[in-house]
Amino acid sequence: MDSGILRRAAELVIAAAIGAGLSLGGVAAYGGLDGHTTTVRDIVSGGPTSAPASFRTGRPLSINQIYRAAAPGVVQVTSTSVVRLDNGSPFGFPMPGFNVPQQETQRALGSGFVIDKAGHIVTNYHVIAGAKSVEVSFSNHDSMKARVVGKDPGTDIALLKVDARSRALTPLALGDSDTLHVGDSVVAIGNPFGLDRSVTAGIVSALQRQIQAPNSYAIDHVIQTDAAINHGNSGGPLINANGRVVGVNAQIETGQAGEAGGNVGIGFAIPINTVRTVVAQLLKTGSVEHASLGITGVAITPEIANVFHFPVSHGILVATMKAGSGAAKARLHGATTQAVVAGDTWPIGGDLIVKADGQTIPSLARLRDLIAAKKPGDSLQLEIYRGTKKMTVDVKLGRQ
């Protein structure tokens, strides 16, 4: 990450039910895994978790086989940025030697992997955010300049390109993240703390997690793993037992309040199926446009529906609306008050969204998925309850 510090180390920035990160854009983790540039070659490490020495699930590839095949396609990404330093007078008024603009060159380290023979490389957006220049180094220790083809802070994905001979490139095969199951074996290859092309192994600990993107929107369907990943692993591949990339390692939970700690067995990877979609758009236009409804909201439960006498037992309570958004222009109603039930705060008095384009909306993730399939300017038909009155509203989606 360009700042070298996880944005929130004590707890992963999981978007709150009524938080700014829920502006309900189409896709929508910051906190990174960057580090420094100490270099030790071909380190194969186990990590703090009880990772298996090899896969014993009847699948054909061992950890060593996966590493040997994939490591040549994993790169170190070094981004260089220039930041302006505050050199103001400590006394609040001009003094000789103070108030003179100063700049400092900073370098951030991450990981990435080759996806084709044309030289395209996937990494995290936060690894190259604000970079003046980007370099990548390969397993033969050759370093070269990389061009940023496109970047998408909404999914924390960036696409680079190097001018290298095709025979010198080892593209990694991409898998299908939708076929993952909890307990599946995975390996992570990257550059933790500058230790280039390290491999760690573990399992898929959970699926359908949610993390926060650099622009504060939510990334859904995230993979949780106990394969050890640390600062510097950002942008590296998470690979299944068949040797195919199923995710891009992006964040860790450190469990340490107020400081950027190391791995505690909880890491997060952006699913490769999300990455495929983003990369296709970056190749085409260099950017990704995410549609946005422009609300914050919270999904109700049957118990809450009973407490507040809602006409249905599912749906999304509209909490707030962004000024000028599609929701605001369609005159949706936000909450007028809040109520606390069993310690949880609920926005009350606003519209209750129960369907979108005819599909039932039991959760925020489902609503975001439907929005993700659309483009800015597309229409979304919402079925809502305003009090006990059932209504249909057409919303023209805006840009995230």
Quick structural gist:
This protein has 400 residues and is mostly beta strands. The protein has helices at 63-70, 125-128, 272-285, 302-307, 326-329, 364-372; strands at residues 74-85, 102-114, 120-124, 133-137, 143-152, 157-161, 185-190, 198-212, 218-225, 237-240, 245-252, 267-271, 291-292, 295-299, 316-321, 337-341, 344-348, 352-356, 359-360, 379-386, 389-396, 398-399.
Fold and architecture overview:
The protein has a domain at 291-399: Pdz3 Domain. The protein has helices at 63-70, 125-128, 272-285, 302-307, 326-329, 364-372; strands at 74-85, 102-114, 120-124, 133-137, 143-152, 157-161, 185-190, 198-212, 218-225, 237-240, 245-252, 267-271, 291-292, 295-299, 316-321, 337-341, 344-348, 352-356, 359-360, 379-386, 389-396, 398-399. The strands form five sheets. A six-stranded antiparallel barrel has the order 1-2-3-6-5-4. The longest helix has 14 residues, at 272-285. With 400 residues, it is mainly beta.
